[in-house]
Amino acid sequence: MNKWILKSQIRKQLKNNSIEHRYLNMKDIGTILILFDTENYGEVDAFVKQLKRMGKKVTAYAFKEKKDTGDYSGSPFQIVTDKEAYDWFKNHLKTLAEEMKKTHQDALFDLTIRENLALEYLCANADASIKVGFKKNNYPLYDLSFSALNVKDNHENLKVRELGRQMIHYLSTIR
Known about the structure:
The protein is 39% helix and 20% strand. By secondary structure, it is of the alpha/beta class. It has a six-stranded parallel sheet with strand order 3-2-1-4-5-6, sandwiched between helices.
């Protein structure tokens, strides 16, 4: 999809969103949908394992940019390539969004640090009771958003690790 059209579709979906949002405590969350960039694969994989040890059922979608040369063929996560996401004729992204709408998730965790229109499109279309992520633009995608992370090092993997830690912390304190 063209990026301009994608932005328009995100705004349209957010305007027409009829999903019932509830602030769930971490112990009440059973199913989680995670969105992330493949460049943070290792950190997210560790985070998913931590969530599974907590008894959570996790589904994840990862976005792979053109410059990423990693091989994710054995990955347990759904990988969306740059080419698939922005291919106007195949509409792969729209198909993924429709699949996601069919299954309700208790929570959506967006672990992307930088703006990613393809994953934001999926986030806007996801049927999750609570959506949590790092604020990257003016779209009201999340019920709980983080605007800054207390990480001294500017390394993105540390930011993803800290974001995951804070998500669990704050969702554990909701009563």
